[in-house]
Design a protein that fits this description.
CATH superfamily of the largest domain in chain A: Succinyl-CoA synthetase domains
Distance between the termini of chain A: 29 Å
Shape of chain A: elongated
Oligomer: homodimer
CATH topology of the largest domain in chain A: Rossmann fold
Number of helices of chain A: 16
Radius of gyration of chain A: 25 Å
Helix content of chain A: 40-55%
Largest interface: A-B, 84 and 83 residues
């Protein structure tokens, strides 16, 4: 197992700097930890309190009777070294240093000092300058961010604090399932590669999403990321991917975001998917977290609006995916129930006259057809159908076809009712998007991952032969 | 005035094929027309009814006592020529043919026939094969789409029916203000250029958004679009912009989407902004509809999250916009109230410690500073602030600074509360987006428009000299 096993599956967590004052970080972290349902031992450390939120407090780490696997530290920076010494003596394995005021404000010396102490005791540091971490399989929400993170398959690593915590809220709003959220901050010790080593083997994680400004050890990142992409997709939002952005990143973290071209080559070599925007990164992650990979490239698009079909065809083509005619067996099946003027090319355009029942039949036929490998379903809200009705037809069709055995993404385009339909599909783990281009982009990412993985496989085989 | 004046400001509208049956197009169009509040005369035409929805019916167009400026036609295709003859005799100026079953299904002859009849009587045709049209200043919603279109400055022309009607719903969901929605369908007569001629002079329209698969007369489009962009921005979603997409479009409308490169040259020459996705087109249109244009290029970014700032810097750089340091007068002002470790570069990073009051002060200072031409405000939901509170601080700051006198776009990143804050800003006509990249892209579109307009101006001046 990875060295980080005890960070994500600790038997006990101490919160050093636990506070009685709502709004304080030391209070919010403790409250999230308790209320999110962590079942191991929780030890608040605060010399001035007997108990906080109903949990017994300890004056110091050393005063805690049991073993401490993880110590979360939220005290002023200058006191951190002292607490680390204590943690070391106590035999703590992982210290999660939320406190800021280190390298990111030029305080390199203090950061070096805490690294030195941790090394001396064989402790690993997450942080400093972070908002904490989440691991839903162990019911850990040790952050001062939103509480009700939805369990699921996405592991999200973020180098940015404020943006990361805000995106944490976005995952809840969008109904996205999370295995882990890890704020890495200054990466004084634990960095992306360490986390990838854990998530690669973690069966609760289906896809890893990294918001990255820079890496500490590029060579190691490439090696570990390549190994990870063989098992599951890794998506990176590389912030500071322009010279101007890199400069802005440098002024923000104190770390150089590095030469952009070098990063892009590294991502290419390790099979990492690069997302330009937060939105597309999360759109892709949602698809990967819920869908199986396709067995082949026979992609079928089903629509009730020609325009939505054209936009999808364009987006796919821009991503190197050209649609072939649908299998004859599928066209023959669908011909039976669609209007005579429907188009049985690809996209299959059932026309604006398409009913909820036609959606049911078409989706089920495509799901069950062995000559179809993947499906994009587009629906424009028309006066003769109800978006929630169409969503429920799609869900029923998938169930009746034996489950989502091939990747399917949906776009439901319209107003309030369309938003409700997207929510319904989301709850049923069918990735749904408000525009056709976003659905197409998610499907394209799936095929791109397969291609990248193939290239990584080949490269590793060639390296072995040398 | 443009020839289409009476289409958008008719004194009377007849609905031929008005129906008593809810769900039928002839019912839905009439109901929308009545309930959206059109104040001119409404004449339902149906030989089998005395009244529908409380409005007196007429057996034919010729039986209507008063003049008819617009006749909306929703009867089977084969009966359309006959009704057009009647309309011609009645002196109808514009016929809006909702009916489908013409060129789009290969029925070219029937389409030629209706064009011939209309020409003979000097009538203009909108359609056929459309969902109707909306013009909010005249309280006209003559569509079978959603009813409660929000009045505002965006004119939306769509060649796609199902997609167009679905996007109509989306504008309501997103709180976007509409001057007109025009479904152009087969463009048998009225095409984009005719509509641009009207919208160019229409003071209710601030920006024109076109979903286009192809144009009938490219040369005329370029000429009219160039003239329009001198007065207001024109955004085009060119569907069928890849060879594969163009083929899909051809099978959908029966019209060739044409050579992609030729279109792109035409758009460039006419100063049209090309959007790749529905989402970015609407994001840009929202900004143009509410904001003044900037007087110069001194753009300032204000954030509480470094990461959001970097993503914005990247997106701007990718659009050719490089940020300069903020004016010293602004930096000095903001320095007074932000934490000491805040960054007064550009982006101005007030850090995660930024309060609602700091947002108020910073936004007001930037709004009032004569050395600032435009502002991007980024906010990541943090534990110490409330997104709605920040939104309200931004709104108050703009008001107290004398209104939105320079372009300002906002990104509010987070969960449910962030969505509420975006709604609040939207209601106050401040464009707000859920991710930093979308806000940056909207601001970049504003600067791109100014540049394109300058190029068009130069080209027209050179042509005059020849």
């Amino acid at each position: 197992m990875s060295e980080l096993r005890d960070l994500f599956n600790p038997r006990s967590i101490a919160v050093v700097g636990a506070s009685r004052t709502p709004g304080k970080i030391g209070y919010e972290v403790l409250r999230n930890l308790i209320e999110y349902g962590y079942e191991g031992a929780i030890y608040p450390v605060n010399p001035k309190a007997n108990e906080i939120l109903g949990v017994k407090c300890y004056p110091s780490l050393l005063a805690i009777p049991g073993e401490v696997d993880v110590a979360i530290i939220s005290i002023p920076a200058k006191f951190v070294p002292e607490v680390l010494e204590e943690a070391g003596k106590k035999g703590v394995k992982h210290v999660v240093i939320i406190t800021s005021g280190f390298k990111e404000i030029g305080n390199v010396e203090l950061e070096n000092k805490i690294v030195e102490i941790a090394k001396r005791y064989g402790m690993r540091i997450l942080g400093p300058n972070i908002f904490g971490y989440v691991y839903t399989p162990a019911k850990i929400n040790a952050t001062f961010g939103p509480r009700d993170v939805i369990p699921g398959g996405i592991a999200f690593i973020t180098q940015s604090g404020a943006l990361g915590i805000a995106l944490m809220g976005m995952t809840i709003l969008k109904g996205m399932g999370i295995s882990a959220i890890v704020s890495v901050g200054n990466k004084a010790d634990i960095e992306d590669a360490d986390l990838l080593e854990f998530f690669e083997k973690d069966d609760n994680t289906k896809v890893v999403l990294i918001y990255m400004e820079g890496v500490v050890n590029g060579r190691r990142f490439v090696k570990v990321a390549a190994k990870t992409t063989l098992r599951k997709p890794v998506i990176v939002i590389k912030s500071g991917r322009t010279e101007a952005g890199a400069k802005a990143a440098a002024s923000h973290t104190g770390a150089l975001a590095g030469n952009v071209a070098i990063y892009m080559t590294a991502f290419q070599q390790s099979g990492v998917l690069v997302a330009k925007t937060v939105e597309e990164a999360f759109d892709w992650a949602k698809a990967f977290s819920w869908l199986p990979l396709p067995k082949g490239d026979r992609l079928v698009v089903i629509t009730n609006g020609g325009g939505a079909g054209v936009q999808t065809t364009d987006t796919l083509a821009e991503n190197g995916i050209l649609l072939n005619p649908p299998p004859e067996s599928l066209a023959n099946e669908i011909r039976k129930f669609v209007p005579p003027f429907a188009s049985l090319a690809n996209p299959i355009d059932m026309t604006g006259m398409a009913t909820e029942d036609m959606y049911y039949k078409a989706v089920r036929a495509a799901m069950e057809n062995p000559e179809v490998d993947s499906i994009i379903i587009l629906y424009c809200h028309t006066v003769i159908t109800d978006p929630v009705g169409v969503a429920s037809a799609i869900i029923r069709a998938s169930k009746d076809a034996g489950g989502v055995t091939k990747p399917v993404v949906v776009s439901i385009i319209g107003g309030r009712e369309a938003a409700d339909a997207i929510k319904m599909l989301t709850q049923n783990k069918i990735p749904a998007y408000p525009t056709p281009e976003r659905a197409a982009s998610a499907m394209a990412a799936i095929y791109k991952y397969i291609k990248l993985r193939e290239q990584v496989k080949l490269r590793l085989q060639q390296l072995e032969k040398l």
